[in-house]
Amino acid sequence: MSRIIAGAAGGNPLTSVPGTATRPTTDRVKEALFSRLESLAVIDDARVLDLYAGSGSLGIEGASRGARSVELVEFDARASDVCQRNADMVNQVLGRKTVSVHRSKVESFLERAGGDVLWDLVFLDPPYPLDEAALSAVLGKLAPHLDEGAVVVVERSSRSAEPGWPEAMECFSDKKYGETKLWFAEPA
């Protein structure tokens, strides 16, 4: 069972997506990831975007740890419903609407985002079948929506190639955790 690890809603369980279409981020990886993000001082008061959200666990962890706003983007109907349940729970615990859910394809969501919409922290945990060219295209659409000092975290299989970064973004670190690899990027 997945849970919120720390912050105002820490310890609360998260509803998981039924079936095998999503890969939840393990608590070990999530704990290491958020420890790193806290050391980079990018969570507190951040505008967070969680693309390919699955259950929404990464974005919701950010909300629990002090993010100003969190947007979960998930196209799959079952996963989107789970995101909404988890968002409702954390919003109730926090006493304010911090987390919102968008049932949308990631590409469409980014195309509709206005030019003045900027995020400070972005998570991308795309499904394994998404090829590198499609992931690079999404990163290209995301790049104009990153605020100065933003951090982008891409989670993939440790067997996956490094994402193809657009010119407006550069990778500054990566870390492998068993079968999971995280890449950290920022605006160039």
UniProtKB/TrEMBL annotation:
Entries under NCBIfam families matching the protein: 16S rRNA (guanine(966)-N(2))-methyltransferase RsmD
UniProt GO molecular function: 16S rRNA (guanine(966)-N(2))-methyltransferase activity
Keyword line: Methyltransferase, Transferase
InterPro entries (alphabetical): RNA_MeTrfase_RsmD, SAM-dependent_MTases_sf
Protein species of origin: Paenarthrobacter ureafaciens
Documented EC number(s): 2.1.1.171
Protein's name according to its UniProt entry: 16S rRNA (Guanine(966)-N(2))-methyltransferase RsmD
